[in-house]
Specification:
Elements (H helix, E strand, L loop, with lengths): L11 E11 L5 H10 L12 E11 L2 E10 L9 H5 L4 E7 L3 H17 L5 E7 L11 H11 L2 E4 L8 H11 L2 H9 L9 H5 L14
Parallel strand pairs: 1-3, 1-4, 4-5, 5-6
Antiparallel strand pairs: 2-3
Length: about 220
């Protein structure tokens, strides 16, 4: 008697664009490198322009979210380039340094810009990085959390150095994304491309049918 086969379904993949914003030296690159590569370097050089990385998050046993991550430079001279990266982004992480209150002020400005100029459905998370430097804290958790709640943001305090709350941050973002809508669009049969292949097939021999296809 043959053993019955156990049916297993292939995991579903949904892809989203994520951008990191924040002042220089708040740890954006360290945060995303901890997430994407599980690495930390005490002496990272400042990002020039933007860096690109990818990483996945499993949101349930059958669904995986792939993030295309743009890590933007925080220096003022690169600020004008930011719209190139947050345009059409599905989600954003705005990072500040818990030891520098001025970085939270700058983060609030980034949030305001995203809410006015980015995708209207963008998911925004506020990340207070350098949680491992508690002795130097300059931003109370309650203050940042209250602002995040008022602005409708996800909120986490993270440490790129120790890895604390890094995976949790990106997983929470993934769970807020419109995964089912993206999956439904990707599986929906595509319509005609504007070329009637049956009519092309009836063309007299010698006609350049390939020229009619605008693929």
């Amino acid at each position: 008697m043959s053993t019955p086969r156990t049916s297993t379904s292939s995991p579903r993949f949904a892809q989203f664009k994520l951008v990191l914003l924040g002042e220089s030296a708040v740890g954006k690159s360290s945060l995303v490198n901890r997430f994407a590569k599980d690495q930390f370097d005490d002496f990272r050089e400042s990002t020039i322009g933007a860096a690109f990385l990818t990483q996945t998050v499993q949101v349930d046993p059958n669904t995986i979210v792939k993030f295309e991550i743009w890590d933007t430079a925080g220096q003022e001279r690169y600020k004008s380039l930011a719209p190139m990266y947050y345009r059409n982004a599905n989600c954003a992480v705005v990072v500040y340094d818990i030891t520098q209150s001025a970085s939270l002020t700058r983060a609030k400005a980034w949030v305001k810009e995203l809410q006015h100029q980015a995708n209207e459905n963008i998911i925004i998370a506020l990340a207070g990085n350098k949680f491992d430097l508690q002795e130097s804290r300059d931003v109370d958790t309650s203050v940042a959390e209250a602002y995040a709640k008022e602005a409708g943001l996800l909120f986490f305090e993270t440490s790129a150095k120790t890895g604390e709350n890094v995976t949790e941050l990106f997983t929470a973002i993934a769970k807020k994304l419109p995964i089912e809508s993206v999956l439904n669009r990707s599986t929906r049969p595509s319509g005609p491309k504007g070329v009637d292949l049956s009519r092309s097939a009836r063309q007299p021999s010698g006609a350049n049918g390939a020229g009619a296809c605008n693929c």
